[in-house]
Amino acid sequence: MKNNAPIVTIQVISGGTLPPCGKSERDKYTEKFLTPMEICSNSKVYIPSDLHATLQRLVKTVAIPGVSLSSFVTSIIIEHIRENASAMKGVYDENLQELFG
């Protein structure tokens, strides 16, 4: 039987392997991004299938009750907004156009 799992083509670093990660760093990551969260929406966001497969594999492997792909992606997006809110607002404001002008 042929394995139809998608081949991951995400390049995370250029030309090498990832350095090892300590337990403390892993624990912080798990606490920050792999925490249970109730998602009460049916809104959809489309992402590349290889990215979906990679994230889903991590979520399934850690098998933390209440953690889903949606809660993981939501945590990543919340952190992105937290870290980049000022720049995001600047980009938004820079691109505003007068509605009647």
Give keywords.
101 residues; 3 helices; mainly alpha; extended
Short structural summary:
With 101 residues, the protein is mainly α.
Descriptive account of the structure:
- With 101 residues, the protein is mainly α.
- 50% of the residues lie in helices and 0% in strands.
- The protein has three helices and no strands.
- It is extended.
Write the layout of secondary structure elements.
Blueprint: H1 23-33, H2 49-62, H3 69-94
Total count of strands: 0
The chain-level structural class is mainly alpha
Sequence of secondary-structure elements: HHH
What does the largest sheet look like?
A: none
Provide the gyration radius in Å.
Answer: 18 Å
* Global morphology: extended
Number of contiguous helices:
3
Alpha carbon gap, first and last residue = 63 Å
What portion of residues belong to β-strands?
under 5%
Q: Return the average pLDDT rounded to an integer.
A: 84
Percent helix, as a range, is 40-55%
Low-confidence stretches: none
